[in-house]
Design goal:
Chains A, B: It comes from Hymenobacter lucidus. Chains A, B: This is TetR/AcrR family transcriptional regulator. The structure is a homodimer of 235-residue chains. The first copy, chain A, is an all-alpha fold and 235 residues long. The first copy, chain A, has a single domain (16-233), classed as Tetracycline Repressor, domain 2. The first copy, chain A, contains ten helices and no strands. Chain A is globular, with a radius of gyration of 19 Å. Chains A and B meet through helix 6, helix 7, helix 8, helix 9 and helix 10 of A and helix 6, helix 7, helix 8, helix 9 and helix 10 of B. The structure holds a DNA duplex (30 and 30 nucleotides).
Chain lengths: 235, 235
DNA sequence: TTTATTTAATAGTATTACTATCATTTTAAA
DNA sequence: TTTAAAATGATAGTAATACTATTAAATAAA
């Protein structure tokens, strides 16, 4: 992780297992990433193909395949980028906050506001990327290849983000028996509830469309602290 | 919903919007459903095709396309069948339990034991079906077509299951502000945490492989009741 | 038994998901 | 600055996927 330079925003470094050739290293690669976010956001991951992307970029399929083995790997790259950016934001905003409950609240605020562009990291359309993360991130690991992909380190960013938050949870209540499950549930719920609010509203308690993020924050905060404070939570 | 007859187990009736021709009505249709569960469980939904299924069944692609428009519709059908079966089980086991907290505990028990074959409904390999539900159910709605699919009624079973559980939650604490969000979070977490325990264990607190379901039940029970009992939960 | 319905067999199309080859341009090293 | 190396573009090609259409054969209903 490199600190933001004076001229440009921070550069997120991702494991070289996530690509064939580093897309951040070349102009075509950077355009690939930027335009793929636009296209996936527009038509969805299942309808997305490298051919369509190449047409949009006025490049060729073969050129794009030099960066990513296939579209699934590109998806893993994009969501990993998002997790890394979130992790960076969390560190940035919590590093001088001594109170652990307050740090957890900040984390939940950041999680529920992930659809806003963050001025410290934006070199990408993060709002579009977050829409992709909400709809498509689960597909990165819900495959028959999970175990080999996991062994190859493809999910490292997500696991590290979870691990960072687990530390806060454990600081709040070292006795709590399910810190990892709680954190992954919060991370997943933040996305799922937003999706439900937008598409399957009977599965959530979203109010008017504008206040979704406040309601979502309130739900997650309530859930997290209720779990951590409940007497029966300790073992 | 029809009660179990003397000779055979209950027949789950699904909305006719879920198929082109009712697969329960013919021998080929029933084989389609049964064999597709085996094949999707084996190779995963992305690798599954009607051609492979036809080969396995010694039928033809064209015949199978008469039952379902495409493989996505088949997936929606299969997971809807599972939700309907769960709903039936829940009604069956809770209908004469007066105590709402006890009913919720029963629901969570059923949710975390969904991978066992239930003797009252088994005409399908429910263990294999539940493995599919865990890995693939989210893909039923995480598409660009969610809104039109939802309008067509494709997610009715899931929404009704959630609504049934919401009633219990509201009986336990009518003041609780997020009953729908809590229920959908519990439903999603039951699947996700099982998947994590099996494939990404650092995201959960699963113990030895054999005790996953007890640990998962304990986590969900703790979470649900902590949320419902917390003083701050009321608004 | 005739008619209608369902299935099987076969074929065919457009798109997807790639891989290969080679010429050309861009970049980087000597 | 030349020269070599690397990256891109252009073109082509293959196997698999996701279907649709047609016709014939089998089965069931009237």
């Amino acid at each position: 992780m490199i600190f933001p330079s004076s001229t440009t925003s921070l550069r997120i470094e991702l494991s070289d297992k996530l690509f064939l050739r580093d897309p951040q290293a070349t102009d075509l690669g950077r355009r690939l990433v930027g335009e793929s976010i636009g296209l996936i956001d527009q038509i969805g991951f299942e309808h997305f193909t490298f051919k369509k992307l190449a047409q949009r970029m006025e490049s060729t399929e073969a050129s794009l395949y030099r960066y990513f083995e296939n579209k699934h790997r590109l998806l893993v790259y994009l969501v990993s980028w998002h997790w890394a950016a979130l992790r960076y934001q969390i560190r940035f905003h919590t590093h001088n906050v001594a109170d652990a409950p307050e740090r957890l609240r900040l984390v939940l605020r950041i999680l529920t506001q992930a659809h806003h562009d963050d001025p410290t990291t934006t070199q990408l359309d993060e709002a579009a990327l977050y829409r992709i993360v909400v709809s498509e991130a689960s597909k990165a690991y819900l495959t028959k290849e999970v175990d080999s992909d996991n062994q190859a380190g493809l999910f490292r960013e997500y696991k590290q983000l979870a691990a960072d938050i687990v530390l806060i949870v454990q600081e709040i209540n070292p006795q709590y028996a399910y810190p990892h499950a709680l954190v992954s549930t919060l991370l997943e719920a933040a996305r799922k509830q937003l999706f439900f609010a937008q598409h399957l509203p009977s599965l959530t308690d979203a109010p008017a469309a504008t206040a979704i993020e406040q309601a979502l924050y309130a739900f997650l905060e309530n859930l997290a602290f209720a779990a951590l404070m409940a007497g029966s939570a300790a073992r």
